[in-house]
């Protein structure tokens, strides 16, 4: 698993791709959930994001380092 993540990180061609990978991996969010995020959904002070999950249910995802 860790080896797969390393290969994904190496394959990122832009900082934007790397940031998206880090966010997806760090939060455990699905691509569709991240796609719907707005800047207002991010809380930089407590390193979290409010994510609208399945069936419109909002959930708080913590941003973890280490992708």
Strand content: 15-25%
Structural class: alpha+beta
Summed over residues and divided by their number, the pLDDT gives a mean of: 85
Number of strands: 3
Inertia-based shape: globular
Largest sheet: 3 strands, antiparallel
Element order, helices and strands? HHHEEE
Number of helices: 3
Q: Summarize the amount of helix as a percent range.
A: 40-55%
Rg from C-alpha positions? 12 Å
Amino-to-carboxy terminus distance: 11 Å
Q: How do the strands line up in the largest sheet?
A: 1-2-3
Low-pLDDT residue spans: none
Task: Characterize the structure shown.
The chain has 67 residues and is α+β, with helices and mostly antiparallel strands. The chain is built from 3 helices and 3 strands, in the order αααβββ. Strands 1-2-3 form a 3-stranded antiparallel sheet, with no helix packed on it. The radius of gyration is 12 Å and the shape is globular.
List keywords for this structure.
single chain, 67 residues, alpha+beta
Quick overview:
The protein has helices at 2-11, 15-27, 31-35; strands spanning 42-43, 48-52, 58-62.
List the helices and strands and how they pair.
Elements (H helix, E strand, L loop, with lengths): L1 H10 L3 H13 L3 H5 L6 E2 L4 E5 L5 E5 L5
């Amino acid at each position: 698993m860790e080896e797969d993540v390393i290969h994904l990180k190496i394959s990122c061609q832009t900082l934007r791709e790397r940031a998206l990978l880090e966010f997806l991996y760090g939060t455990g969010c699905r691509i569709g959930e991240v796609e719907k995020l707005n800047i207002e959904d991010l809380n930089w002070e407590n390193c979290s994001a409010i994510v609208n999950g399945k069936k419109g249910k909002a959930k708080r995802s913590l941003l973890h380092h280490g992708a």
